[in-house]
């Protein structure tokens, strides 16, 4: 079996939001505490593949007792999915070689611009020695929609609209991970439905429509069309109180669909 752990299930601000006095941000309910969205796949072949490097990454990986990684997938270049990149330094030191980082061409370009000391090292350090505590050993691998093999694991990527750019949706064996998207194109919906998923982890920012994310009604529509055995809602804002959302799903008669909880793990089979 494969395992995926929800390292973080919150939107770009995390929950609670700094300075916010709303019911959810002031809640003592631990399931309302959400780090920025990230996840860890541990495959049946013992490979550990990180999905996104959130600003909370160091704490997330310490809490999960993650001592090694084999690869990283970056779904897109927004800050809440990439600004933990420097926290990956110890893994390269331990390996003694670079970790592969898979993302699409647009995100790769932006990562080189944001982190030139990591991804454009030759130009950034041209004519000068690298001093100090070292830099992350990461090797960009440009991918695109379609099949991809990552450290021997078979993946399939989908290009999902997200504002002015796209996000990589991920299919691995009987699990799909779809975050930060405004819609899911028909071709992706058909493929995901045909995959007969055991687990779908899907964007659900808030109750009301949003210009770059899925909202509850649309998320549930996509779940109904894809028909996974289990669906998990993630990338949630402070509009969602955990228990209120559970109640709403039950009231609507929605079965086998749950809000994500940070630190929660799910098992899924090979295809």
Topology:
Blueprint: E1 2-8, E2 38-42, E3 48-51, H1 57-63, E4 71-73, H2 79-82, H3 89-95, E5 99-104, H4 105-114, H5 116-119, H6 121-124, E6 138-143, E7 146-150, E8 153-162, E9 165-172, E10 175-178, H7 186-194, E11 199-203, H8 216-226, E12 230-234, H9 242-251, E13 257-259, E14 265-268
Parallel strand pairs: 3-4, 4-5, 5-6, 10-11, 11-12, 12-13
Antiparallel strand pairs: 1-2, 1-14, 2-3, 7-8, 8-9, 9-10
Structure description:
- By secondary structure, this protein is α/β, with parallel strands linked by helices.
- It has helices at residues 57-63, 79-82, 89-95, 105-114, 116-119, 121-124, 186-194, 216-226, 242-251; strands at residues 2-8, 38-42, 48-51, 71-73, 99-104, 138-143, 146-150, 153-162, 165-172, 175-178, 199-203, 230-234, 257-259, 265-268.
- The strands form 2 sheets. Strands 6-5-4-3-2-1-14 form a 7-stranded mixed beta sheet. Strands 7-8-9-10-11-12-13 form a 7-stranded mixed beta sheet.
- The protein starts with a strand and ends with a strand.
């Amino acid at each position: 079996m494969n395992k995926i752990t929800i390292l973080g299930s919150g939107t770009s601000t995390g929950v609670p939001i700094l300075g916010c006095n709303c019911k959810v941000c002031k809640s003592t309910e631990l399931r309302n505490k959400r780090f920025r969205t990230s996840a860890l796949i541990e495959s049946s072949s013992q490979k550990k593949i990180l999905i996104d490097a959130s600003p909370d990454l160091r704490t997330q990986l310490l809490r999960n007792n993650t001592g090694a990684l084999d690869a990283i997938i970056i779904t897109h270049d927004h800050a809440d999915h990439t600004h933990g990149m420097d926290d990956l330094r110890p893994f390269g030191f331990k390996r003694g070689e670079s970790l592969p980082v898979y993302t699409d061409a647009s995100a790769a370009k932006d990562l080189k611009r944001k982190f030139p000391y990591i991804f454009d090292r030759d130009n950034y350090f041209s004519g000068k020695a690298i001093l100090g505590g070292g830099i992350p050993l990461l090797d960009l691998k440009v991918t695109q929609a379609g099949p991809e093999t990552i450290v021997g694991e078979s993946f399939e990527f989908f290009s999902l609209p997200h504002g002015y750019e796209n996000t990589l949706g991920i299919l691995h064996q009987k699990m799909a991970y779809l975050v930060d998207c405004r819609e899911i194109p028909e071709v992706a919906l058909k493929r995901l439905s045909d995959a007969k998923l055991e687990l779908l982890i899907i964007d659900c920012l808030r109750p009301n429509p949003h210009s770059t994310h899925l909202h509850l009604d649309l998320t549930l529509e996509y779940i109904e069309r894809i028909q996974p055995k289990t669906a998990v809602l993630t990338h949630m804002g402070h509009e969602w109180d955990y228990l209120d959302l559970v109640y709403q799903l039950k009231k609507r008669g929605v079965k086998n669909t749950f809000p994500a909880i940070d630190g929660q793990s799910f098992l899924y089979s090979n295809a």
